[in-house]
Design goal:
Length: 237
């Protein structure tokens, strides 16, 4: 289940590039919390604090207990880390979006799905395990939110499929996705070879750009042109 982590935050009033640069110079990251019946609230959190939380997170859904300091008055709000903006080069956190949640109201979230074990069709017959869904949308209370869904695929033979409905979810957690949707499937070697051959044939049959041939000049014509150019008198100024 998602662990609820305490995180200190402060309200912020400044907006714009200069205000953001000032926040970063103080070792903090701009953030915002929205959702529920309250208006979005601009915040700032410690850059080191949020980096430590993300480094220790085992899944995409991180439940935090924000201890917000607003002009000396502290308030606590439960929230999910909804979106994180990273610097494209350094990877540093630039901005954090928090989604306010209530302990007694169900939420929906996409939970990562990870295979466990080696499929029998892969181990014994040279098949390939294909994963069609990387996450499953579930509905539950915040306290029951899973970090990750681990699925045992060791019993899968060639042609076998695990659907959403086949996955055993934690107690009080319900899948929002259709139960008939395929999550894992083991392909046979013959189908893999057929797909590779079809791809190769398609590549070979693809039209290629025609080669542009430069027309050769007639030596006699070329010489005449040169001579004509050489006989040209210089223009009087």
């Amino acid at each position: 289940m998602a662990k609820q982590i305490k995180l200190a935050a402060q309200t912020r009033s400044g907006v714009g590039r200069s205000a953001v640069n000032k926040i970063k110079a103080q070792g903090s990251v701009p953030a915002v919390i929205y959702g529920g019946k309250k208006e979005p609230q601009p915040l700032q959190v410690g850059a080191r604090d949020i980096a430590n939380i993300l480094a220790k997170a085992s899944g995409e859904n991180v439940l935090v207990d924000l201890e917000i300091d607003a002009a000396g008055q502290k308030a606590s709000r439960m929230a999910l880390i909804q979106e994180i903006q990273h610097h494209p080069l350094s990877g540093k956190v630039l901005h954090v979006d928090f989604l306010a949640v209530s302990a007694d109201q169900k939420i929906t979230a996409n939970i990562p799905v990870e295979p466990f074990g080696e499929a029998a069709g892969v181990k014994n017959f040279g098949g390939i395990l294909e994963q069609m869904m990387r996450s499953i949308e579930v509905e539950c209370l915040p306290k029951d939110l899973p970090d990750v869904l681990t699925v045992d695929v060791s019993a899968l033979n060639i042609g076998d499929t695990i659907h959403v409905s086949d996955i055993k979810l934690p107690e009080n957690v319900v899948a929002s996705d259709l139960g008939t949707m395929s999550v894992f499937h083991v392909l046979s070697p013959t189908k893999i070879e057929a797909a590779e051959e079809a791809a190769t044939a398609a590549a070979a049959a693809a039209p290629t750009a025609p080669e542009v041939l430069k027309q050769k000049e007639d030596p006699a014509t070329a010489g005449a042109a040169d001579k004509k150019g050489g006989d040209k008198k210089p223009e009087k100024k």
